[in-house]
What does this fold into?
Amino acid sequence: MRKSLKDIQKIVTEFTIKPTSEMRSKVLDEALELQKNRKQPSTSDTDRWRIIMKNRTTKYAAAALIMVAVLIGFNVLTPAPAWAIEQTIEALREIKGVYLSGVVYYPGHPKETFEMWARPHSENSSVSGDFRLQEGENHICVASETQNLTFVYTQNPEQGVVYVTEGLNRRCDTFPTGDLFGQFKEMATNWNEEYGKDPETGRDCVFVTFEGPAVNTARYWLLQFDLETKLPVHVSVWFSSDYSGQPHFDFTTITYDPEMGEDLFAFDIPQEAQVVDCREVRQMLDESPDCGIEVENLSIEDACKKVAQEYWQAVIDRDVSKIQHIRPLAVGSEWDRLSVSYETNKPVMLMNIPDMNHLNDPGTFAEVTCILTTQEGKTAKSTLNIEIRQTNRGKIGVVAGVVGPELNIVN
Amino acid sequence: MLEDKLLLWKFKRGSGEALEKIYDKYETYLITVATALLNNTQTAEDVLHDVFVSFVQSADRIKLDGSLKAYLAVCVANSARNHLKRRQREPASMDDNDPVDAAGPGPELSAIQKEQTAILNRVMAQLPYEQREVVVLHLQGNMKFTEIAKLRSTSANTIQSRYRYGLEKLRSLLNSEVI
It folds into this structure.
């Protein structure tokens, strides 16, 4: 019987060659050797993330918030999912704790690993109560519900500093309520579900991608659910719509109800660290309501710059009353100490402000690093704590103190 | 496939395991495409070797527009074409006489299947390479004519013509064979 074109197409389509047993080694050995010696991909350099990344804790909290919103929002978007998301929803309702770890990456900066532990708040299970974030050994945040305090520790090269702030100012909203559903549903587009196997374990999984809420401009999400346990096993958010390059956040480990000892949420202040008790400093600042300069209509970044510039101009001009107007706690013995420091190394010019930290983090003061030139032609560095506060005079900026020495001669 | 994107992502980060998984996943598919294009299993294996070495060497530059499967098929097609060009410049060797069924289907395939494979390879080998490539990439590689046209810097109409002529010739050849 003569064959039709369709028959021919079918024959060609079904044509298969079975690989020989020796082929794998012949084809792959050299490639594997090359892969072993291959360097990790480098990242392009850009510093456009510099300011954003300094808001260290909020970025994790935001990502974690969105992540869990996504997990639960999934139920709303797909009413009859094949992997019985209802079981996941039920499990999420019973969560008494969560552990997350992974990698955060900003273009132009080295990747950083992080770990987070959180328990739901005893009175409002939609937010965390006890919370701990650890970013390497250099940045630790602990929020303690029983103490109603938050400790934020950063090990800077010159000086470690611990901010003690009142309330739970660092949190992980991993226990969201239904309020988030609608919000998330509005934000997610190009929702796509695909079934496959976990590349490492070979377990059956469903992979979900969509364009969703942006975390520092990364908005392409990839979620992976284990079909047997129904739990998410991988969550990442990418800058690139084709999921190439490095993900911004990559939650590689997600553990529900892990063992969490009380020590995890008790913060021991490191011996060498400078302690900035924000509660006390704010109380003292409250006693000088007329001090500070107006920064109305300025962004937090510009407001901090303006305060630093005017403060250093007053120091350079030896204008004591203006110094004390901008820095109201520089009085009495504190002023005596300060004036000696400024007399020893007289600043004559503010060169630049290369770094700002904690600009939008709740509870802590902003850290504004200033580079100055002294009368002797030396370069000095000073990191001011700046507070932008709302008063009955409007938005006011003050210098609340310094981190480390008043003037650190760097060369 | 997201699974592929995840694999590719891990591969680009230096994972040997991901490379092996990519290989294992597409081994049969790629050797079939390569063999169909080259009509010689040994040469097809050589081409696959070159493709995977090049895949690792250019890992940092890989950017997928479509699927990983299609990407690898294109790599195989390009490498096969280069191989044939090189071979045309070289004097004939023993390799040229190594038929596809010499290292083709394994023993578990029935004698009939082996025979069918051998016949198909024999007739495929009689197609001009341009037509064979389009037939293989379209039917085996699931590539659209427009994609193949882009790959070969020609028009989609030309590619469709090659496909039509190729398929007609295959029909004619196969109808004269017992298959």
